């Protein structure tokens, strides 16, 4: 018998113990023994089984196969737990799994005259990290020194248009005389990122049903995998903004010569898709979209102190599951946060400047950005949006007749916010779908003054 330093035990086949498990366990993933933890509690020698995991797995369960004493100890405890265990996959590799935010189902106690029975339990996993370590041998000797990192991302317009062709697509286009040049984006520390389609197949379907409905961001030449992860998250945030639909990275992995490390983030719900007649924020052109992402990434990376403010503002833009009044309040707050980023105003939680100060400082550098829009704080063209926001946060109730005016106000706040972010990220508003020419097609842009008059009585006095 040989004991490894990661806790896994390799034995000859006759020496392996016989363990009885439920019948349904036959269709799941691997078994492993490890430690279940919760704050000051620690339960060793827990036998667990994970579901089969794929890069696109969005929900996963862990099944705890408990003894009677273990079930008694866990009976009165609730989640979240974390589980860590390791096992040997062969002669050349040992895997360690760390699952966090486990919320197991309550353990049931069934009392009868002849015995007390305890139920097994299972629970959803919040996140999972798997570290595979290659042991000395032929497998380790055959591995390269460097590998690219890759990140599975949910689809959005920017990823679709920037995805490089695979060999099959390139061959099909070349047959008809077409070609497309691959797109690469520069990241920090000299790393390069490229986007590819990720083929996936629904369970119980044939190979004919394989679809490329996810995308992989591949990063090469990185020095620190955590920096690469941070850069890809920034790219996906900016791609979501450009697409007007949210993308996120739920699985990522990287390799060294000695290790393969994989991470999953589970239980993230579905995101709203872009409406059928809603255009992306950037033009439908591959070169334009690539240029925007590169320009925006460079600007965003250079302002690390204000990055959380831009993130919150973009999430406010992409969130539509609120009432109209609450959406207006959120968008107005997001505008104030973005003006911090655009003006690089020093952050001081004890003394925050009023939005009018930030707004006018922004206008001194970009005086014509808001031409044609419902004024934000200026009163020269009528009551500004700031007064409407004040009425909402102070509990003013609005009637059904005023719904159109409120919806127009919400659209103008979105256009204000999108224009500020575009300018702050170094992009020309005229090369977007919130330019003056593009917005002239919308009634909310042409007729806002008429609806503004419907809300005059609701506004706070000057």
Quick tags:
single chain; 462 residues; alpha+beta; 3 domains; six-stranded antiparallel barrel; two-stranded antiparallel sheet; 32% helix; disordered N terminus
Description:
With 462 residues, the protein is α+β, with helices and mostly antiparallel strands. The chain folds into 3 domains: 2-141, no CATH class; 146-248 and 273-297, no CATH class; 303-462, no CATH class. Helix content is 32%, strand content 23%. It has 14 helices and 17 strands. A 6-stranded antiparallel beta barrel has the order 3-4-5-10-7-6. A two-stranded antiparallel sheet has the order 1-2. A two-stranded antiparallel ribbon has the order 8-9. β13 (185-186) and β14 (192-200) form a beta hairpin. It is globular and about 85 Å long. Residues 1-13 and 201-211 have low confidence and may be disordered.
Q: Unreliable runs, pLDDT <50, ≥5 residues?
A: 1-13, 201-211
Which overall shape is indicated by the principal axes computed on the Cα atoms? globular
C-alpha end-to-end distance: 84 Å
What percent of the residues sit in helical stretches (DSSP H or I)?
Answer: 25-40%
Mean pLDDT: 84
| Largest sheet properties | 6 strands, antiparallel, barrel
Kindly provide the radius of gyration, computed on alpha-carbon positions and rounded to a whole number of angstroms.
Answer: 28 Å
Biggest β-sheet: strands ordered side by side in the sheet: 3-4-5-10-7-6
Number of strands: 17
Total domain units: 3
Count of helical stretches: 14
Measured by DSSP, the beta-strand proportion falls in 15-25%
By secondary-structure content and strand pairing, the structural class works out as alpha+beta
